[in-house]
Amino acid sequence: MISVIIIDDHPLVLNGFEFILKNTSTIELRGSFSNAKDAFDFLAIETVDVILVDINMPDMNGIDATEIIKKEYPDTQVIAISNLNEGSIALRMLKAGAVGYLLKNVSADELIEGIEAVMRGEQVLSKEMTFILTDKQDEIPTVSQREREVLALMAQGHTTPKIGELMFISPLTVESHRRNLLQKFGVANSASLIHKATEMKFI
User: Fold this and answer.
1) At 32, which helix (H) or strand (E)?
2) What is the pTM of this model?
């Protein structure tokens, strides 16, 4: 049997997916969690084959959660479950290590087939996402860890000198990172950068 857990903070979604998976002979539902922390506490004790991960959660977004899961449990397969049919977010989930992206209006048969498919080494996408992603492949900027740190501090409202102080780098280096980020995201100013980076779940 395929062992599965769900991480989603919407009770109706959890209940619906639980009902489907509990009534599927090839799948064993090991747990349902409303936040990433509780799921990580469980995974520290027991590993599973597949994790269904929501994009928006109270304590961590699904992209960051997926990166942690794939680093700590590389053999576990991650499928994103989301209401967001945004190609940029789906691509970031796939880059983070997810092997699937299913919208929450997925049918029971599609959900079960998707879980079984990833265990065969296949990638699964909702039909709507397959169409959207064809136009998005080149739109996701590659951002270094250092640039992500600068982004996060900018979003918190820190000035360039303060960011330099917090990161132990010079203001000139901070400004260099900022210019690179503006170019990568295709925006003209810091406000637009923060807005776009937030939309794309970099922040």
Assistant:
1) strand 27-33
2) 0.69
